[in-house]
Design brief:
Structural class: mainly beta
CATH architecture of the largest domain: Beta Barrel
Radius of gyration: 20 Å
Strand content: 35-45%
Number of domains: 3
Order of helices and strands: HEEEEEEEEEEEEEHEEHEEHEEH
CATH superfamily of the largest domain: Trypsin-like serine proteases
Distance between the termini: 50 Å
Shape: globular
CATH class of the largest domain: Mainly Beta
Number of helices: 5
Number of strands: 19
CATH topology of the largest domain: Thrombin, subunit H
Helix content: 10-25%
Strand order of the largest sheet: 1-2-3-6-5-4
């Protein structure tokens, strides 16, 4: 049974949820790409990095207003982006530290899946911990139904306090959300260097262990360095790569500097090396 007053909680959460679209208010044909949440009434909106893929976005508020927002910072590894918009009468959320979540708690998600604006789904928390194959970072894991368009929207407890930013669904139908405490850290830290690849740790019996490149993001440092899908990343600055976290640690240590990435391509052969220079993060540049 849903708790008393649940309808009012859901309505407040809807008013804090926005639709994130590519383009600007002057581009009437811009299509919805995901959701976002008004984090604070100063115009800060949080969404996924894979939703806010450009330097600007068109935001549609709960009351139908469309406003232009700038991407102030983006962290591809945490899959978070912070947008800034200039609008009045915003409905900011309350948040709760996701580390206090317990399995079995009721949660609700609001988003814009498949074009249905403000759609609400409910479920229960499964865990709030690391996921095998996705590095050491924690995820809020919930048995809740998500669909394309929910990405970037809020996952909240029964009091409407946001505990995560919905991101993806994994095998078995479990939905993953970036924990609220990770969002708070991101807001303090700002952007981090990103290579611009989707990788998976593998132990190739022929080529050895490393990180297999599954995707190269357009316009990223990886694309500029001519890395390709299928490359096996094996070292950074001479240090062997055994996990996704090893790559993340090396990127954090670069601080906007130069990294030499060793990789294997195609049939077994000599290891190649490419130099990748990372610009200072926006937070540092400021």
């Amino acid at each position: 049974m849903l708790p008393r007053g649940f309808g009012e909680v859901a309505e407040r959460l809807r008013r804090s949820t926005v639709q994130v679209m590519s383009g600007s208010p002057r581009a009437p044909r811009a299509q919805g790409t995901g959701s976002g949440v008004v984090w604070s009434d100063d115009g800060t909106v949080i969404t996924n990095a894979h939703v806010a893929i450009h330097d600007s976005a068109r935001i549609q508020l709960w009351d139908g207003r469309a406003v232009e927002a700038k991407v102030a910072s983006r962290d591809a590894r945490a899959d978070l982006a912070m947008l800034k918009l200039d609008a009045s009468e915003l409905h900011a959320i309350r948040w709760r530290d996701s580390r206090s979540l317990r399995p079995g708690e009721l949660v609700l998600a609001v988003g814009n899946p498949l074009g249905f604006v403000g759609a609400l789904t409910t479920g229960v928390v499964h865990a709030a911990e690391a996921v095998n194959g996705l590095g050491r970072g924690r995820w809020v894991q919930a048995s809740i139904r998500l669909a394309p368009g929910n990405s970037g929207g809020p996952l909240a407890d029964v009091e409407g306090r946001v505990v995560g930013i919905n991101t993806m669904v994994v095998a078995g139908g479990i939905a993953l959300a970036v924990p609220s405490d990770t969002v708070v850290d991101f807001l303090k830290r700002g952007s981090r260097p990103a290579l611009g690849v989707v990788v998976r740790a593998v132990a190739d019996g022929v080529r050895g262990a490393g990180l297999l490149v599954l995707e190269v993001i357009r316009g990223s440092a990886a694309e500029n360095a001519s890395l390709l899908i299928g490359d096996l990343l094996v070292s950074v600055n001479g240090q062997r790569l055994a996990s996704v976290d090893d790559l993340g640690d090396a990127l954090d240590g670069s601080k906007g500097g130069l990294l030499k990435i060793g990789f294997l391509r195609g049939a077994p052969g000599k290891e190649r090396e490419v130099s990748v220079r990372f610009p200072a993060s926006r937070a540092e540049a400021a």
